[in-house]
């Protein structure tokens, strides 16, 4: 909803500093709620992606990590 609260779903990373940086970033962007996902330590085996040899196109980036490793 346009006037509703914005919430962010965070997957906790092994690098807790990275998770903390993401939290600070979304807080600065005005998010009011943080939903922690802690039950998936790794991504699933996506058989269709394997069979179709899916690869993320090189021009696409994971936006949440932009500028984190400088």
UniProtKB/TrEMBL annotation:
PANTHER family: 2-HYDROXYACID OXIDASE 2, S -2-HYDROXY-ACID OXIDASE-RELATED. Residues 1-70 form the FMN hydroxy acid dehydrogenase domain. Its cofactor is FMN. Keywords: Oxidoreductase. One of its GO terms (molecular function) is oxidoreductase activity. It holds the Pfam family FMN_dh. InterPro entries: Aldolase_TIM, FMN-dep_DH, FMN_HAD. This is FMN hydroxy acid dehydrogenase domain-containing protein.
């Amino acid at each position: 909803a346009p006037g509703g609260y914005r919430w962010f779903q965070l997957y906790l990373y092994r690098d807790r500093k990275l998770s903390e940086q993401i939290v600070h970033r979304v807080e600065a962007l005005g998010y009011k709620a943080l939903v922690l996902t802690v039950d998936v330590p790794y991504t699933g085996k996506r058989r269709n992606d394997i069979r179709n040899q899916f690869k993320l196109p090189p021009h696409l980036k994971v936006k949440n990590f932009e500028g984190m490793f400088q």
